[in-house]
From TrEMBL:
<feature type="domain" description="Polyphosphate kinase C-terminal">
    <location>
        <begin position="336"/>
        <end position="500"/>
    </location>
</feature>
<dbReference type="GO" id="GO:0016301">
    <property type="term" value="F:kinase activity"/>
</dbReference>
<dbReference type="InterPro" id="IPR041108">
    <property type="entry name" value="PP_kinase_C_1"/>
</dbReference>
<feature type="domain" description="Polyphosphate kinase C-terminal">
    <location>
        <begin position="507"/>
        <end position="678"/>
    </location>
</feature>
<feature type="binding site">
    <location>
        <position position="52"/>
    </location>
    <ligand>
        <name>ATP</name>
    </ligand>
</feature>
<keyword id="KW-0460">Magnesium</keyword>
<keyword id="KW-0418">Kinase</keyword>
<comment type="similarity">
    <text>Belongs to the polyphosphate kinase 1 (PPK1) family.</text>
</comment>
<keyword id="KW-0547">Nucleotide-binding</keyword>
<dbReference type="Pfam" id="PF17941">
    <property type="entry name" value="PP_kinase_C_1"/>
</dbReference>
<dbReference type="InterPro" id="IPR025198">
    <property type="entry name" value="PPK_N_dom"/>
</dbReference>
<feature type="binding site">
    <location>
        <position position="409"/>
    </location>
    <ligand>
        <name>Mg(2+)</name>
    </ligand>
</feature>
<dbReference type="InterPro" id="IPR003414">
    <property type="entry name" value="PP_kinase"/>
</dbReference>
<dbReference type="Pfam" id="PF13089">
    <property type="entry name" value="PP_kinase_N"/>
</dbReference>
<keyword id="KW-0597">Phosphoprotein</keyword>
<keyword id="KW-0808">Transferase</keyword>
<dbReference type="InterPro" id="IPR036832">
    <property type="entry name" value="PPK_N_dom_sf"/>
</dbReference>
Amino acid sequence: MVDNITTLGDPKYYQNRELSWLDFNSRVIEEAIDPTNPLLEQLTFLSIGSSNLDEFYKVRVAGLQDQSKMGVNEVDTKKQWTPEKQLKEITKKNRLNVERQYALFDLKKKELEEHRVYFKSIKDWIEEEKAEAKRLFEEEIEPALTPYGIDAYRPFPHLSDGVLHLFVRLERTGTPFIAIIPISTRLKRMYPISREGQTLLLFIEDIIYAFLNDLFKGYTITYSFTFRVKRNADLEIQEEGAEDLLEVIKDYLEKRKNGRAVRLEIDERLADIPVEEDIEYLKKELMVKKRDVYRINGPLDLTCLDEVTDLLESKGFEGYPSFTPYYPAQLENQSIYSLIEKQDVFLHHPFESFEPVISFVKEAAEDKRTVSIKQTLYRVSKDSPLIEALKYAANNGIQVTVLVELKARFDEANNVHWAKELEEAGAHILYGVKGLKTHSKATLVIKKERSGFKRYVHLGTGNYNEETAKQYTDMGLVSSNEELAQDVSDFFNYLSGYSTQPNYTLLHVSPFDIRDRFIDNIEKEIQLHQSFGNGHIIAKMNSLTDKKMILKLYEASQAGVKIELIVRGICCLIPGIKGISENITVRSVIGRYLEHSRIYYFYHNGEEELYLSSADMMTRNMIKRVEIAFPILNSELEKHILSILKLYLYDNTKAWELNAQGVYHKLNPQGNKPISAQQTLIDLFSP
């Protein structure tokens, strides 16, 4: 058995974080050919693959490019790769992913043709279609277009992040010219034409291309092609010395609009001649490298398929069968507060409704006995009922304290807006902790009862967002347990005042404490296994990247502990390696809902411990964020959650397993009864 830390740290025992993420996106894309998904949903997965990749480039690849540009040669902690090596490997794997995505898109187009729905190429338009396209151009598109010529008096224009642009080569009396036309995101991407029982789908860029002469009268169009730029969103927020973080965030959002170009995509469908010279020109102006140029024989940005699915839905195409989250029967005729006086309440979204969480805050806001409400907000919806309840409470004299995490990436503007609204209503607003993101999901309600003050808490694995609660699997606990409530009270006082990290009784709070606690739990599992031979760990999370956690899991595997990991996304651990991780299995479930709950279970020779958490086993969650892990104290609830974990371990239709070579393969029933964890839970909670 390999048992020394030097050997366990060998790079061959780890996967690179970025390549593992690309593997995850590949699994998402492959859902486009899963026959258990309706055609509409298959198209949606292709769209998700594109939006995922955009964010990956704007953040992860952008950060590596910055390091490479500055000559940083510091290697990553697991594979020992330099930034330049990582960028090279990312490019290699991602090009294969993109090729596969567009190959599947071509397959989906053929399937749609069987339903008389056609993506009609400009080269195949008949006269009637040209006439309708001309009308669309003149009435719905042309007024919103502004061509930008490029010459000594008209500099190269700013190209907005993610916006489609047409690059146009034209000439007049033998003199060549260049122009660029941005296509406003306020315009539709797809324009349907109905004819003889058929639906023809025209891309806006194709319509503009067909009538370019109308925009450049007196000039001859040589050729044109569509391109798109993604920009760096991985800008550092300068917290040091800031007097007002709100103003810092506003400045940050302005700067992000002009981030450095990180990817250039070229649509080569309509360019009849080689465009190498123009690509070189764009590369030079945008300062991107050859590896960051993607030449695609297809429409750019497949998130446009969302428009297609909306259209098809209106024509009677069906997606997943409708499902209404179950509202717990025990809450039908009583207040949630009456119930949690007697017992803890466990909620599993989206199978169970998020409404009880909203009621928990709304009832408190309307109760004259309520003294204060405290809540952490990371990502909330645009029209959040929770925000409205908090504003109502503040307006009615209840002390409302809300930590609004302004540094929640891509939600900064939304959170700035809500912070202002809450502050205007009279709530006390906290902006987080210096140098850390507050990712915890916690609510504390304090009431003045006849017997004295009484505290009630909600803790969860997901955001206080009723919209994503319909799309993500998450878990939450509502409780009046005195020790738990005291811990949550101490937690909020730590955030709002000045004190060292409290000594919690039940909670474990990062930075550091969650990782320390889990390492202690693994140590204990190893020791008990050596005595009783029944060591067992099950953990479900979004991503596993933290090297200290991986080393400890390898150590447990070497000791013989059975470890079952359910990791939706990135997994830097490699299972099944003889002498290293042969007692570890890793699976990823990609289904109708995005798996988001974090669950950590330790058998401990029958004295089981089970935690729910806002934290993944990622270094950023362990040492760079304020996170909470909380125990499930009720044995019946613990058994229930454990049964859910086991259901995911039995899934043989939506699960992918990772092998010792670092390759995922999708499971199939192979003659056994098909089991989908998500579908089983939907069936369980359906009327």
